[in-house]
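WARN retry 2 of 3 for item q-0093 after timeout on previous attempt; input resubmitted unchanged.
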Amino acid sequence: MTRPLRTLAHEAAAPLIGRCSFPDHGAPLSCAVSGGADSLALLVLAVVAGCDVTAHHVDHGLREDSAEDAQVVAAIAGALGIEVVVHRVNVGAGPNLEARARSARLGALPPGAATGHTADDQAETVLLNLLRGAATDGLAAMRSGPRHPILGLRRAETHDLCSQLGLHPVEDPTNRDPAHLRNRIRHELVPVLCELADRDIVPILARQARLLADDAALLGELAATLDPTDARAIANAPVSLARRALREWLRCGYPPDLATVDRVLSVAFGSTRAADIGSGRRVRRSRGRLCLDPALEPEPGQPLGPQDSDVLSCGPGVPD
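OK item q-0093 returned
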């Protein structure tokens, strides 16, 4: 008699579950499940952790056979006794496909949905953000917790778990497409760095991310004590804290880039009276206060200015 998948899952996952960061037993947890090995392992481990799990699968419609991925997820979730919700989004061909697909996926998933990112993904994200010029927050990459509960595991371990349970993950061919920078980091840069270092660099980069996350959290707490509209307080504060306070104040979706923050910092110092920050917005100084003027609606037919396309140009840095 074939043993139930849930029973097998508890046995196979036992050596891994202690290195995960799932919420408390019985807590509801939405899991993003693409059908790949990492997300299937996430699903299995969430069940073993005792969470009240719902699987969410997003079909981007980018491949003719993409609907088959949902069938794979539904079959495995059914064997685990888990409800599956399938979201279908229309991304369409065009530039910035990876970023647009990610945005559509995040828009479809429930807020706070857990993802199957591993330590290998963390290392790749650190390198990706480094190439993009990120500072402390970006180099801290993803934070361990309920949103990234298997960040302490390696990709090889998720594949091995699926193999032990007889699961057949979906193989997405886009994961090897060199048109995507993350794929080149994964398949080209990381192996070269491991060779140069004569060691596995993934644990090193993951450790650095954890240390920087601690530093970023402390700096964030200190910056939160500053009033970003008090020009004198900002001007007298350590510049690292002043920048953080201003960045959070100016955040509109994504945080502003360094050049924008420094323009506003010059207003706090009194070097200039006002600074454009893009999208028709500006910050001005009045009676010792920094005032954020909202975006102005353009006249009908009036094209957006250059600053409107450049605002908050740092873009997304953590793939989910």
